[in-house]
Amino acid sequence: MSQNQIPELSGFGGDDLDAAFAKIVDEVQDSSTNLTDDEAVEQFRLHWLGRKQGRLKAISDAWLKSAPADAKKHIGQRFNKLKEEIDRRLESAGNVGISRAQLAAEAIDVTLPGLRRPLGAEHPLIKTMNEIVSVFQAMGYSVGVGPEVETDYYNFESLNFPPNHPARDTQDTLVIANQERKPLRDRLLMRTHTSPVQIRTMERQPPPVQIVIPGKVHRNDAADATHSPIFHQVEGLCVGPKITFSDLKGTLDHAMKAFFGSSVKTRFFPSFFPFTEPSADVQISCIFCGGTGCRKCKHSGWIELLGCGMVDPAVFALVQAKQPGYDPKKVSGFAFGMGVERIAMMKYGISEIGQLYSGDMRFLEQFA
Ligand code: PHE
């Protein structure tokens, strides 16, 4: 195929243009009679569509660029038809303009070994959380969740933290901006504990309940080796007729033994939470030294692990408005809450809480 000169247009009238383009279409036809192999197709493509030397570009340069403004549209329309004609021929030759070399480069070598995806593993934090949850599931507890963005009512007021109560200060709360115009109880904040889900659960279902609630909580704590402003808790709630402090002790003692091993002992210390009365902190015998005293337990033999207590009748009284079954004269219950990071760090001997959030594979692989 020779690079013929582009004939000059005899004029810009419709007939002139039709005649000129018809000649080129004939040319396209002639040059496409023998497109039987890739080589020929590629030649045809280059001859017509080549970006620098292609005939289509030459035609555009010769006819379109120099045409008077009002003829451009008419030439352009015919030009597009011509381009379609060339494309059609390329397509029917079974090739849309990919050269053999290109095809070879893009071909898939089915004999190559596949890409192996490394097997994933549960994150040590999530693994710990799931293990804690399943200890309680085995005792007949169900599992629930609740929102991380909470109202002041559920995070505090319904749990017997009245406005301005000093107990609120123990939970450095991150509040959502621009809530000042709402009544206090409706203002949004990041939940500081999973306890609001106790209330949400009781409002939804009549007693008895036995539920554990794993989840993320937020506090305005400075990050250090053992603190993070975002961490995880597992909450528990058990309500029914005649639930006693002995049930609480037995349940948590069993749970700690199931989780850490049967030789672990528990002891309960008086504590304070506005929504439980009486309240207790639970310690377990040091899992590192077995209770004889070591650096990990600060030579006390005990490690403090969770907070708990009997649900305060004042909490039931508030829930009662929505679920009459929670009559403090007829039901009693206990609740507990524990920090998952602390437990995971103890269990796996992790000294920096930040490692749990680093996403560092060298760290995570150790738990796979
Ligand atoms: N919500 C309490 C806290 O985060 C823990 C707790 C839960 C205490 C349930 C008693 C009962 O500090």
- Oligomeric state, counting identical vs distinct chains: single chain
| Low-pLDDT runs | none
Largest β sheet strand count, sense and barrel closure: 7 strands, mixed
CATH superfamily of the largest domain, by name, is Bira Bifunctional Protein, Domain 2
What sort of overall outline do the alpha carbons produce when their principal axes are compared?
elongated
**β-strand number:** 9
Pfam family, one: Phe_tRNA-synt_N
Subunit structure: Tetramer of two alpha and two beta subunits.
GO molecular function: ATP binding; magnesium ion binding; phenylalanine-tRNA ligase activity; tRNA binding
Binding site for Mg(2+): 277
Account of the 3D structure:
Mg(2+) binds at residue 277. Belongs to the class-II aminoacyl-tRNA synthetase family. Phe-tRNA synthetase alpha subunit type 1 subfamily. This is Phenylalanine--tRNA ligase alpha subunit. There is one protein chain. A hairpin with a 2-residue loop joins strand 6 (266-273) and strand 7 (276-285). The model has no long low-confidence stretch (mean pLDDT 92). Helix 3 runs antiparallel to helix 4 and helix 6 crosses helix 11 (340-348). The chain has twelve helices and nine strands. A seven-stranded mixed β-sheet has the order 1-4-5-9-8-7-6, sandwiched between helices. A two-stranded antiparallel ribbon has the order 2-3. The protein has helices spanning 14-31, 38-49, 55-64, 69-92, 100-106, 124-137, 152-155, 196-204, 245-260, 313-319, 340-348, 361-364; strands at residues 142-143, 149-151, 188-190, 209-218, 230-240, 266-273, 276-285, 302-311, 332-339. The chain has two domains: 14-106; 124-367, 2-Layer Sandwich (BirA Bifunctional Protein, domain 2), CATH 3.30.930.10. It is 36% helix and 18% strand. With 368 residues, the chain is α+β, with helices and mostly antiparallel strands. It is elongated, with a radius of gyration of 38 Å.
